[in-house]
Every structure is written in C-alpha cells, then in structure tokens.
Amino acid sequence: MKEDIKSIMSDVFMTDELPDDIEQSRFDKWDSVQHLNLIVELEQKFSVDFEPEEIAEMTNLEKIESAIRAKVA
Amino acid sequence: MSFYIYRNHTVEPLFARIPDVTFSGYDDISEVPEDANTVLWFYSYPFDCASRLVVERIEYYGQQLRMMVDAIPETSALCLCTMGVQELTVREDSDFSIRGAVENYNAGLVELADTHAHIKVLDVASFLEQFPAESRTDWKYYYMSQMQVNPALAGEFREWFDARMRAIQSKRKKCLVLDLDNTVWGGVLGEDGKDGIKLSNNYPGSCYRDFQKLVREAIDQGVIVAVCSKNNEPEVWDCFETHPDMVLKKDDLSSYRINWTDKATNLREIAAELNIGTDSLVFIDDSPQERALISMTMPEVTVPDYPAKPYQLRQFMLSVFDEHFRIYQLTNEDRKKTSQYKDNARRVSAGKDFASLEDFIRTLDIHVLLSSADSYNIPRIAQMTQKTNQFNLTTKRYTESDIQKFVDSGAWVVCASVRDKFGDSGITMAAVIEMDGQRANVDSFLLSCRILGRKIELAIAQRVFNELFDRGCRHISARYIPTAKNMQTESFFENFGFEAAPGPDGGKEYQLEMQEKFQIADYYTMELNPGERRYQEHNV
To answer: What residue in B sits closest to A38 (Cα-Cα)?
Structure first.
C-alpha cells in the first residue's frame, strides 16, 4: 500500500524524488492545495471518504497509510 | 503554454496537471498577466445563501469581467467560461431573477467573444450539466476549501479542457470542401435522378436537409464552402436550382470542381482559386477511398471520418465546425478588426461601467475592521499563525498562550476582518508588534490569501503603521524570513519606504523612521477598535 500511496504522491507532486519519510511540513511541493489534490486522488484510488478532521491529520506517509487502513479494514 | 486563471473559488484540482499555471486571488482582478499564453476567466455560480446576493454577485462578476477585458493584452487568448445555474437557496426563483442574471452574464461573454477576435467562450456550464446536480459539488470540499466543482470530476474536466485547448491552439480552417452524392444528399444523383435522391422532411432525407442547413449557418459564420464531386455538372445545377428541398444554392459555393478528375488535383485547384493554403481545407466525403487518397497525398488537409448513419450527420457537422472553424488564433486582419471593435466597446463600456479600477473598487464598499487581540479573537489569531504560509513575513508559529503572553507583555497584537457588499471574510489578517516607547518591532505580519488583491494588504499595513505613529512610535523595525512558500512577501515592506539590510539565511532586516502618517487609498473604509471589544461577525 505504501508504494501505491507514493505513486499517487509522485503524480500529484509531479516528481519522482520522494523521501521515504516524506512529511508535509518538510516537503515544499506539498502545500495546502496539493494536499487537497492528494486527498482527492487517494479517496478515488482506495474508494474511501475522509472526514475534514482526518484530512487535516494526514500529514505524512505513515499517517496516510494508517488512515486508509482504518477505512478499508 | 502558460495559463493565467481568474477565478472566484478554488479550482486548482481541475488544473492540477498543468505545469505552468498562475491563479488570481479569489474574486481578484487587480493583477494583469502580461505574457500569459492563455487567460482563463473561470467564475462559477456564487454559492450565497440569499437570492438577492446571488443576483448582485453575478452582476458584479460581469462588471469585473468588463473591467478586466480591456487590460488583458490581445496577444493572450482569452477564454471566458460560461456559468450554470445551481438552485441553492430556499427561496423559489419564481421571478427568474437568478436565471435572468446568469443568462445576462453568459450573454455578456458571448457578446465579448463576438466583438473581439482573441476572446473565446468556453462552455463550462454545459460540461457540468452532463452530471446530475447533486454530484457537481462535494459539500465537504466546498466547506473545507471553497471548491465548488466536485474534485471527483477533475479527471473528466481535464480531458474536456485539453480538447478545447488543442482546438484553440490549432489553426483555424477556412474552407469546407463537400462531396455531393451520399454526403449532402442521400443516394447518387446520376443513378437515382433528382426525384430519387434522399432530401426531404422525412427520414433519412431530413438528416441531409439539416446537414445542409448547418452548412448554410456555417457560411453565415464566415466559413467558405466549396464542392468537389464526381458528377455531371449540368445535372448538379439543375438539382441545386429546382429541387424543392435543396437548402444550399449555387451562390453559396465559393468554388467548385464537378468532374471526373482525381480529387487531390481538384483540391489543389480549389485552394489556388480561393487563394488559401491547402492546409486550410476540411474535406468531407462519404467514400473511404476518396478520404484515404487525400489523407495520403495531402496530409495537410483535414479529413474527418464521415458518419455511418444519416442520423449522426447533425452531430458530425457540429463537431467539425466546433473543432476546425469555431475557435481560431489571431491573424493580423483579426487584430485590426479587434482594435476597431475595441474602440467601440470602450466607448460603450465607459457609459455603463467604470472609468478606473479605483472607481470600481469604490462600489464594493470595502470595510476593514481592525481589532486588538481579546479573548474572543486570540484563538483565531493563534490558528492563523499556525496555518498561514504564503503571505506571512516571518512564519512564526504561536499557540494561544504565546499570543496571550505577547499581550500581557505590552505588545500590540492586532487582527482584521474585511467586509464588502457581499459579505464578511471573518478574521483574515493578524500582526504581532512589540512596543518599546518610540520603537516598535513587527514580529509577525500575515494575511489570508482569501483577501489578497485590490492592494488591500498595503492599506491594512498602512493603517497599522499609522496607529503606531499615533501611539508615539517613530522608529519601526521589521524582518522578512524566507521560507519555501512566502516569496510573495519578499519585497512587501519596501512598499512603505523601509530600509532593507541583509539578514540571516537570505532574509532581510528592515528599519523605518516614520515622519508622518501614510495616506491610505480612500476607497477603503478603515475602522480600528483599540481596546477590549467583543468582535462581531457581520454575517450577511
């Protein structure tokens, strides 16, 4: 699943150079608009719906993964 | 290909894959792109809850557009997006005021496109109408980030939009070259005879008749039409003149080759006769062999596939027109035409619109309410320091208790809300200023992107400095700390005459000796509540 998420991130941020510990606060291309784009793509790809409160928390790869796992499980 | 997009809501996800795109502020026409390839005017139906506001706002959008059109260089293609109606108020639109406003708005776009060669209308409303009303907006995203178009439609939108843009960039064709048998009528004239061909008010003759009507319309739109067909010429003219259901007349044809010569030769002759390039021809023929011949020998000619069924002809003709004739680039002649039209348009617009952007802003009746920090607004101020990235001079993040400590230590912590005739932004600006007798230090200064534009950031800062002056401060220091996201504030303080010295990490240290108060643009009404005061929301 991590790889799926990263590949979506690559598409959204338009770069292949993603650090393994990618985090919104430390990754310039991950601004608030791109965050929205990313969430939209994730929701479609994994057929899930996130609440605004969850979306605000999904600020790094780990948190995104566990948020998705909690929904699909 | 660079884009500049004027918008009134969040549209970024719709354009996520376009690398070179710049967005205006929300509802902001103060910036004019000088060298954008394509400028897009993408204003959506306003989501106000009161019908009156919806109508007013749509009218305001139309005014904004007319202000903006004259400012955009004609070297940019300008695409105006149509607006669709969404029923979003509890009141019934029984007097059709909302519908009327949307129709007026869209008619205004068409009028602009008709009188300016570089302006096109992009029918976003009909794109959205393909989807059921309830799926056009995802309310979660609307309330989270002012997205009116459901981001789930982004993929389909991108495809649709790319196709339109390709059409805009491709060269406009000039001439439609038509075959006759089984193309503008059903059957073969030489075999079936004038009375036997299918051209009437009944199926399938009605399909050919409507096809001819659309060609006739295209001629009125400036398309040149020629005929290239293998027939006996006298029979053809007899049919044109005497068949009761022929819509096209011989006079409609700018050129014709009705003979048994190969069609490639004929097309070259037609182009030469009309004094246009063969790359301006669109060749319509039902015969796959003829089409293949032209495609292979004259690849510059556009050869659309002819539809298999007569009832598909109408849609076929519409799409041919849409793709090859409707949208086109500027030619020198168009430019001349445009400037003539423009002079007229200016004269007309001076009467019904505004002489300057200033006059226009004045009509918005913008009020800025500055309030010192108190228990009601401190949570919002702290939240803004946490969240604001772009218009933030120092990007210092503070908690509520940090802010409270500043207040307790005598610093002036101030925030502002902006209200205009459409509503209230809520608190969208904050500053933390340390005070020490005649000296003041701007620790933080930030604004939400939602209110940027119209030079409001300058006016607010000027008002803040003037207040410092009134409190006896003569010496103001400030700082710019660069981050990956706050480039736009890099030269903000220079606007006020601050002296800049290099600071750490590419930042700047500023000093200002204030001799007198700033003159603030008089189209803003500024109010300041210096003391403890309950902050009131001016919700409309």
So the answer is: B13
